[in-house]
């Protein structure tokens, strides 16, 4: 487990066992990170898709994010009001090949840009989805100034109409 400058956000280098048949990969050991994940979801994204930046305000989720096929530019924005790193973001590349996963604690917005033609992502979440408390921060918010790696961007209507960080601070 590799710690980051963000409290409780860390990278996991997963164990992968390869041979001529393929590989077997350990993704998560709850005992190592002392978290329970009752809600497991998966997404598929084509190249250039940006998803995010999503969070749940009331029933905030911790997320353990892994890529099982493809490669993504992953971003977590600290939105914990009393945090020293509030409004700052952490970025990393997660891929099938590098066997890395990231644990994003509750209180962070999460998003990514898909870098390959086919990208399958698994999210293990500490809370169930609560659509009533979902919030979305603009992926291209000027205050955040995230440098997305691909110029072409495919973004949902919901994500394009998201609030700014300034608007989020007022709720």
Explain what the structure shows.
It is a single chain. This protein has 171 residues and is mainly beta. The chain has helices at 30-33, 157-160, 165-169, and strands at 2-3, 10-13, 16-19, 22-25, 39-46, 49-56, 63-69, 71-78, 89-95, 100-104, 108-114, 118-125, 134-136, 154-155. It has one domain (2-169): Jelly Rolls, CATH 2.60.120.10. It contains three helices and 14 strands. The strands form three sheets. A six-stranded antiparallel β-sheet has the order 1-2-10-7-12-5, with no helix packed on it. Strands 6, 8, 9, 11, 13 and 14 form a six-stranded mixed β-sheet that branches. β1 and β2 (10-13) form a beta hairpin. The radius of gyration is 16 Å and the shape is globular. The model has no long low-confidence stretch (mean pLDDT 94).
Q: How many beta-strand elements?
A: 14
What is the 3D shape?
globular
What is the radius of gyration computed over CA atoms, rounded to a whole number of angstroms? 16 Å
Quickly name the level 1 CATH class: Mainly Beta
Strand content: over 45%
Order of helices and strands: EEEEHEEEEEEEEEEHH
Structural class, by secondary structure, is: mainly beta
Strand order of the largest sheet: 1-2-10-7-12-5
Largest sheet geometry: 6 strands, antiparallel
| CATH topology group | Jelly Rolls
CATH homology superfamily:
Jelly Rolls
Low-confidence stretches: none
Give a short summary of the structure.
By secondary structure, the protein is mainly β. The protein is 8% helix and 45% strand.
């Amino acid at each position: 487990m590799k710690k980051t400058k963000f409290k409780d956000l860390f990278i996991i280098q997963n164990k992968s066992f390869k041979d001529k048949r393929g590989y077997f990969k350990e993704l998560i050991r709850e005992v190592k990170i002392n978290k329970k994940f009752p809600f497991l979801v998966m997404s598929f994204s084509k190249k250039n898709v940006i998803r995010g930046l999503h969070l749940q305000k009331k029933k905030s989720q911790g997320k353990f994010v892994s890529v099982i096929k493809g490669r993504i530019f992953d971003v977590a924005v600290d939105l914990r009001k009393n945090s020293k790193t509030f409004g700052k973001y952490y970025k990393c590349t997660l891929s099938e090949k590098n066997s890395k996963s990231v644990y994003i604690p509750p209180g962070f917005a999460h998003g990514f840009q898909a870098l390959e033609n086919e990208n399958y992502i698994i999210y293990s979440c500490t809370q169930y989805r609560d659509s009533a408390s979902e919030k979305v921060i603009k992926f291209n918010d000027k205050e955040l100034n995230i440098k997305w790696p691909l110029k072409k961007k495919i973004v949902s209507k919901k994500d394009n109409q998201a609030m700014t960080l300034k608007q989020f601070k007022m709720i």
